[in-house]
Amino acid sequence: MTFPTPPRYQYVSFWLSMPVISGFLCYILYDERIFWDWRIWLFAFPLLHLLGYASWRLHYVYSHYIHVRYPSLSETRKRVFLTIPINLIVMTPSILVIFYIFHGFGILGYSIRQEDLWYGYLVGLGVNIVFESLWEVIYIIEKFKEAAAEKEMIEQMQLRQEFDRLKEKVNPHFLFNSFNTLSSLIYEDKEKATLFLNELSKVYRYLLRNNESGLSTLGQEVPFIMSYARLLTTRYGDGFRLILDIDPAFMDRELPTLSLQLLVENAVKHNVVDRDDPLEIHINTCPDGYLEISNKLRPKRRAVIDSTGIGLSNIREKYKLLRRLDVVVQQTEQQFLVKIPLL
Description:
The two termini are 55 Å apart. Helix 2 (38-69) packs antiparallel against helix 3 (76-91) and helix 3 (76-91) runs antiparallel to helix 5. The chain folds into 2 domains: 8-150, no CATH class; 189-341, Histidine kinase-like ATPase, C-terminal domain (Heat Shock Protein 90, 2-Layer Sandwich), CATH 3.30.565.10. It has a 5-stranded mixed β-sheet with strand order 2-4-5-7-6, with helices on one face. Strands 1-3 form a two-stranded antiparallel ribbon. The longest helix is centred in the middle third of the chain and has 75 residues, at 114-188. The protein has helices at 8-30, 38-69, 76-91, 96-104, 114-188, 190-210, 218-236, 259-270, 311-321; strands at 215-217, 240-245, 254-256, 279-285, 290-296, 328-331, 335-341. By secondary structure, the chain is α+β, with helices and mostly antiparallel strands. Residues 303-308 have low confidence and may be disordered.
């Protein structure tokens, strides 16, 4: 038969409490002799430890069975109801066996007395009530921790699934717009089309490498958005300008991957890009830990805008999954501004 191994906290509590319990039992067995008869501490005290250890391990076998049979938090009442009668009828009276062993073998001249059995029963009852209650509370706390960990794991899995769903939207969206631009350039300027294709390969390499995690540092996103800006410059020439003012102290902060690309693309898509009056997009960090992306508002006519409605809503959804609802969008007659938190 293989005995189940008690958890560490039960070992610790047993070995810390057993000297006190053995001391009480020695006093019940030998009264005042414990103060002058050294043989009690040399022989009886260790023997009580040994018998106590055997009793504890046998008690744990039953306790382990109950917890395996009824492991959940909802079954706590069943465990308690099944433990109480066993403690009163079996476990607590088992301490009386110790007195009969000492009496039967006449250890150090001990002879059993009726009042010893009563005192022994009270000691056993007190010990069982205290430690069974303590161990059940610890078990419940551990179960609560497990339930919380499982809940967090499920939430993380759901978060990952949601991020994957949003990434699936971003990649085709990005390619759709890039290929449209490339298609136009092929007819307008083949040399520019070649340059655009080279930059596009660099940009998409970053997208494939970094879009897996869902989050990127600002230090990773800034070089990427500069590469993306070169794509736009190839397409629009002097009609597009990207102006960065990034505090290096924020480079290790995180944000959803491709957020800057989506916001820059959103600005280009919805505003007139004119060489005589360039579209300037400003990206700057704020002391309060936010990133601002702003541009002059010069909206295109709605009839010529081909929008899939993904960019800004995608960013909002990602921050919502991260339990951040503080994405700020402000629009005036002259300016469009988006403010996103750096994590």
